[in-house]
Amino acid sequence: MKKQFIHTEAAPAAIGPYSQAIRAGDTVYVSGQIGLDPATGTLRDGIEAQSRQVFANLKAVAEAAGGSLDQIVKLTEIMAAQFRQPYPARATYQVAALPRGARIEVEAVLALE
User: Fold this and answer.
1) Which of 10, 47, 76, 108 stands 20 to 30 A from 94 (CA)?
2) What is the pLDDT of residues 41-100, one digit of tens each?
3) What's the chain look like in SS3?
């Protein structure tokens, strides 16, 4: 199966040696997104603003892959305000620190049709 590199200027560039997302067949693996504003490269202030930016970044990457947030089947964090039932599967991890002092990071897997 061929892998396709996914990148969009509408989401922050990768901070390290990884891609924003990789599409393999009809599955898209989206790297963890933090609350960075892609236009300025700065972290939004506060958990609410960072959370909104995280989902804006996820949406931009999903759309660059030809999908949408509605096609997410797995998240590492879930926010009821962003999704409706049935909710995607999820996992939550505790870490010592996130890149650039972010307060939230979310990764996702999309199933495209």
Assistant:
1) 10
2) 999 999 999 999 999 999 999 999 999 999 999 998 777 788 888 888 888 777 889 889
3) CCEEEECCCCCCCCCCCCCCEEEECCEEEEEEEECECCCCCCECCHHHHHHHHHHHHHHHHHHHCCCCHHHEEEECCCCCCCCCCCCCEECCCCCCCCHHHCCCEEEEEEECC
What pTM does this model have?
Answer: 0.90
Q: Quick one: tokens of 83?
A: 């999704």
Bridge partners (DSSP) listed for residue 90 = 75
Adjacency order of strands within the sheet including 3-6: 3-6, 21-24, 27-34, 105-111, 72-75, 89-90
Q: Kindly state the tokens that stand for 29.
A: 């693996």
